[in-house]
Design a protein that fits this description.
Helix content: 40-55%
Structural class: alpha/beta
Number of strands: 14
Strand content: 5-15%
Shape: globular
Radius of gyration: 27 Å
Largest sheet: 5 strands, mixed
């Protein structure tokens, strides 16, 4: 009896210590979150609730802590418990991805919030047009229309929908009602014929894990990849040229699956310019069918698949017949993401046939230019990673140098390059992609392309026109004009009751920037303006000259008047901003205004 009591006491003590440990962990996490929220608040002068939302958003999309884009922020009265709606189009792949957020700066997950989120989803996807038009939240109304236009363009089966409910709560302490509501929401919307649908809850622990992953840089992965090796036949090819070594060999499907699972999530694909497209596409479905098929089918994988291309800092081949492998330091899969991720899924599901073999091509080089050439040569460029490929381009280095040395601005040629610098004020940091868009909109007079085809900024089609040999002074001027337009637009979008003006302030800021440049300088030929005039404009902006900000507001009104002039011809204002017609209408109105002045 005494032993039983002793065991019971021991169990209670262990449980008590575990509870204390968990409480201490929660306290630490909440304190660190408070620090991040305070940091965002100090740089943006906003409420704690907004700062928490900004922080969560930046974590989720691995961005610098800062404002949520104006066209994605729908928080406010009548938003049906939906705070953020982000849309990303992959037009060349014929699909779109949508993220829907509810973010609460609370230490709990409220059970009725999931029900309210489900109601918000119903408004976005299912409520009739008449009901949507009755909404008083203009941002939410316009976003619903945009989502439905995306649905018409790509079809529901080519839309991926991600719903995120984030708070500072503990996801391990959700009650039965919570879990039932969450499972119900997933089951109902999963069956709505989307390509993929996922509902995810993020609490303090999940957010802190994301913060740790964000801080873990660089994501170095070292691996021993076992290979198929036969001393009696040519099963391994080595090639050396200068400072580059290469190996062509064969490995097994489960070896690739294990490799992909190493390190932080998707870290091995950091240099790969194509994300995993899921299992719904034809190609990935066929890869999966072969990988999980009967032995005779699985054995054909080597012949039917292009294999995997890797780069690494160091490469060492071990030709032990009983345990042959290639040892890889700081390895990256730069081509073959779809194959690798499909194999991982089959492996994790327990379905991968162990007869699967595939080719591997591995390059050893610490020369970033060579690695970038390999990445470019083995992939088609896309909108997300192409920026990174050009980060070490001579044009980017030159722009960064001039921006800093001549004007005291810090041009980020790499994403979040100056994020951790405590000496640099956030207002002095310039995102190179946004600078390219602004230059394209104002100086090159192509605001529609800047808004709708951001993925082309770093493509062969536009990169040279924008960045190579660019006049840095005009790029900086264009960026600052856009920044003023965006800041004023964000403020006016929240205050206006006009649906047209709200649309201009949300979707038309690159067009406003183009108009602002022409009104301010009094000429449509921005490239011919002297740098002295641009530098005077930069000085006025830095001094807070009211005249520049007044012209930005006038440009918003000008764009609003263009829409009103053609309102009978416009079916969708958002689509109007994507059309070529808007450029023609702006040109004609600006020309009429110039003629009146003359």
């Amino acid at each position: 009896m005494r032993i039983a009591r002793s065991n019971a006491t021991m169990c209670r003590n262990l449980a008590s210590r575990r509870d204390i440990s968990l409480a201490m962990q929660d306290k630490l996490e909440q304190t660190v979150i408070d620090e991040h929220v305070a940091q965002v608040q100090s740089s943006s002068s906003i409420r704690a609730d907004e700062a928490f939302a900004f922080w969560v958003y930046s974590l989720y999309f691995d961005l610098e802590e800062g404002a949520i884009p104006i066209d994605e922020d729908i928080d406010g009265k009548g938003e049906k418990q939906i705070d953020i709606v982000k849309i990303q189009e992959f037009s060349e792949e014929g699909r779109a991805e949508i993220w829907i957020f509810q973010i609460k700066n609370q230490k709990t997950f409220k059970s009725n919030s999931i029900t309210l989120i489900a109601n918000g989803l119903d408004w976005i996807f299912s409520q009739p047009r008449e009901s949507v038009n009755s909404l008083t939240n203009l941002a939410f109304k316009n976003k619903i229309k945009e989502v439905r236009q995306i649905r018409q363009t790509y079809g529901m089966s080519n839309m991926d929908v991600n719903v995120i409910y984030a708070s500072r709560g503990d996801t391990t302490k959700l009650g039965r009602e919570h879990n039932e509501e969450a499972n119900k929401l997933q089951e109902i919307w999963e069956s709505k014929y989307f390509g993929e649908f996922e509902f995810r809850m993020l609490g303090a622990s999940e957010l802190m894990e994301m913060q740790r992953e964000k801080e873990f840089s660089p994501n170095r992965i070292n691996a021993d990849l076992r290979i198929v090796y036969d001393v009696n036949q040519a099963s391994l090819l080595r090639f050396n040229e200068g400072k580059v070594r290469a190996v062509l060999c064969t490995t097994t499907g489960d070896e690739i699956a294990k490799l992909v699972s190493q390190g932080p999530k998707n870290a091995i694909f950091e240099k790969n310019i194509r994300r995993f497209l899921g299992m719904r596409g034809r190609v990935n479905s066929e890869i999966h069918q072969t990988a999980v098929g009967a032995d005779e089918t699985a054995k054909q994988f080597w012949y039917m698949n292009n294999g995997i291309t890797m780069t690494c800092d160091e490469l060492d081949v071990v030709t032990d017949p009983d345990d042959a492998m290639i040892k890889l330091k700081n390895v990256q899969i730069v081509n073959g993401c779809q194959t690798a991720m499909t194999l991982r899924k089959a492996f994790q599901d327990g379905d991968l046939n162990d007869r699967v073999r595939l080719q591997v091509k591995a390059y050893e080089s610490t020369n970033p230019d060579f690695v970038n050439k390999i990445v470019l040569a083995t992939n088609n460029q896309n909108s997300i990673k192409a920026r990174d490929l050009y980060s070490n381009d001579r044009a980017q280095i030159d722009i960064q140098k001039v921006m800093e040395e001549r004007y005291g601005f810090y041009y980020e040629r790499k994403a979040n390059e100056f994020r951790d610098s405590k000496e640099i004020k956030k207002i002095r940091i310039i995102d190179n992609e946004k600078a390219g868009q602004a230059y394209l909109a104002m100086t090159l007079k192509r605001p529609t392309t800047a808004r709708t085809q951001k993925y082309k900024i770093f493509s062969d089609e536009l990169y040279g026109q924008i960045y190579e040999g660019v006049d840095v002074t005009k790029m900086l001027t264009s960026y600052l004009f856009y920044k003023i337009s965006a800041d004023i637009g964000k403020s006016e979008a929240k205050d206006t009751e006009s649906e047209i003006r709200h649309s201009v302030c949300t979707y038309g800021l690159f067009h406003v920037t183009r108009i602002m440049g022409e009104i301010y300088f009094g000429t449509p030929n921005i490239p011919k303006i002297s740098n002295k005039r641009c530098e005077r404009a930069i000085s006025k902006i830095e001094a807070g000259d009211d005249a520049v900000f007044r012209i930005a507001s006038e440009s918003i009104s000008f764009m609003e008047s263009v829409i009103n002039d053609h309102i009978d011809e416009i079916e969708s204002i958002n689509n109007y901003f994507k059309s070529n017609k808007i450029q023609k209408d702006i040109n004609e109105k600006l020309e009429r205004e110039r003629n009146v002045i003359e």
